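Researcher: Sit down with what I've pasted below and flag anything odd:
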Amino acid sequence: MQTISRRAFLGVTAGAVIAPSVSWAAEDVPALLDHILLGCSDLDRGIAFVEEHTGVRAAFGGVHPGRGTQNALLSLGTRRYLEIIAPDHKQASVQQFSVITTLKEPQLIGWAAHPGDIQSLATKLAQSGIKAEGPTPGSRKRPDGRVLHWNTLTLHDDAQGLLPFFIEWSADSLHPSADSPKGCSLVHFEAATPDPGNLTKMTALLGLDLPITKAEKPLLIATIAGPKAQFTVTS
């Protein structure tokens, strides 16, 4: 199996990168990670991209009315999943994650974490002087007709995409990881930044155990293992 060093990987990465094996110091994933978002300009291409490198085909999840996007989902284990998100061309325009309209290759565009109580977190942030939007209700109708409901809390300053938005699923909504195609796992997730100290202070305040590495530019890095192979993708 081909292996590339971690230092070399961080030095050359831009956008999506496929590597049979990356020699991480340790396998680690934030405990509160809910899902990671793989953006692409075309949903079918994004699904094919993931299937080619893992051997598992993501299932269509539905559309986000008023936001201009649609998605496909793949379980990464208990209460953890991959969301492949792309423009829904039946809607007028993409209102959120507009970068996906110009992507030439699939790449990470963000991640979501699940707090213990999203309203309590919103209050804590306000008391700390950190600006955030929400909690804001959201919903999506699945192909089987079931409607999922959630609330999100979005930071005004997400450290150039390195910090997550927060999501709290409604008690009557089945978590997407429960019945999305299985067989894959998230074996590593981290953020790289020129200023690890400042990012560490923010993650501590937010209660996130996000692995952080020093690098020349901000970068999210995720390694996913599937029945066919393991691949690493970045922002």
Notes: The two ends are 24 Å apart (CA to CA). The helical segments are 6-12, 43-54, 118-127, 196-206.
